[in-house]
Structure formats: structure tokens, C-alpha cells
Amino acid sequence: LAKTTQPISMDSYEGQEVNITCSHNNIATNDYITWYQQFPSQGPRFIIQGYKTKVTNEVASLFIPADRKSSTLSLPRVSLSDTAVYYCLVGTPGTYKYIFGTGTRLKVLA
Amino acid sequence: NAGVTQTPKFQVLKTGQSMTLQCAQDMNHEYMSWYRQDPGMGLRLIHYSVGAGITDQGEVPNGYNVSRSTTEDFPLRLLSAAPSQTSVYFCASSSPGGSSYNEQFFGPGTRLTVL
What we know:
Distance between the termini of chain B: 36 Å
Number of helices of chain B: 0
Largest sheet of chain A: 5 strands, mixed
Distance between the termini of chain A: 38 Å
Largest sheet of chain B: 7 strands, mixed
Shape of chain B: globular
Structural class of chain B: mainly beta
Number of strands of chain A: 9
Helix content of chain A: under 10%
Helix content of chain B: under 10%
Strand content of chain B: over 45%
Number of helices of chain A: 0
Oligomer: heterodimer
Order of helices and strands of chain B: EEEEEEEEEEE
Structural class of chain A: mainly beta
Radius of gyration of chain A: 13 Å
Number of strands of chain B: 11
């Protein structure tokens, strides 16, 4: 299972774009990259998933360089409600062992 | 759909007591799992199941038992509670299929305190 490394915490101001980078140097060929968001006292919630290049949905964008050894979650124009912990996971479909790291605690300031 | 439900929401046990945390999902998902989350930490996988009758250990299985007799239910049993098992427990489910690493749906969690 590929180990991931993320910054422990980040601060941002409302309206700014936030980029959270995850390092996964030993990612395997079949591994996908998935990001989850967790608010206090709630279970994590799926945000976005990708394999290579760029993926965008209504919530975020995920950028994955060609070597796939890192990925960046981009949150456009954050608001106070985006204050949460963000987790990066790497894994192969069918293995079912989803390993969460310690995540990145994002605090959005007014 | 209720999604993933967990009961109870809160529980206090004394050391040595046993109990079962309940988890149910109504999405017909094959995969279900249990995690624990200690204060300020990430989630750690306890046990998981890829279908009825099939379970396997995660990162931290000691002190916990699971069984999966139906697709919908995946209870987690603590046989003899210890203070080190004080944590928030999350159940999750997902549906494998295709080539993507499928989205997990999480329950609201059970906050367990062992005195």
C-alpha cells in the first residue's frame, strides 16, 4: 500500500484558492488517488478521485503529474464552511484496504 | 435511502465489558469496513468485508471481532473493552465495480468511552 504524506495544517482566507499537495512516491501502476473531506464529529466524505492528469468536479480539481508521485487537491474560492480535514488516499481497485493518513487540517479565516 | 447507519451514537463501558457496535447500509454495497479515529488522528482500518461471509483484518484488528451474515449488516464486537479502545468508530460501505477506486460512504460514527 502506497504511503502518503501531506502537510499537517494550512490556513487560508475566504475567497482564496487553496492547494493541498499529497506525496505518494511509491504509488503502484494500478493505484488511484482519492481525496476525502471530514468535518468535526462527522464521517469522511468523498471529494474527488483520479488516475492521471486533471480531474474536475463541482467541488474541486485534482492535478496529477505524469510521474504520479504526488497530487494536488485544488479548492477554488474557499469559504468558512470548507474548514475541515482533508485526506489523500492511494490504492488499487479490488484490494479494499483503504489506508487513511493523518490528513491536512485546513482552517479558513474570515 | 438512509445510507449507512450506526448505533449507538454514544456509549460508555467499563473495562472488561463487552458490546456490539451496529452498522447497516441500504445501498446493497458489497464492501463494508470499520475504522477507529482517535483524537486528532486519522482513521485506522480495523476490519473489512468484501461480501457476506467474507471478512479480513485491517491495520488494528486486535480486540475486535466481526462477522457478515447479510449484505446489509456488519457488526463490530468488543469482547473485553479496554481504555485503549476509547475512540470514535466509523463504519463505511462501497460498491466495487469497474476500474475505479470506489467511493466509500461513511456512517455518522459511534463515540465510545471505556473507563
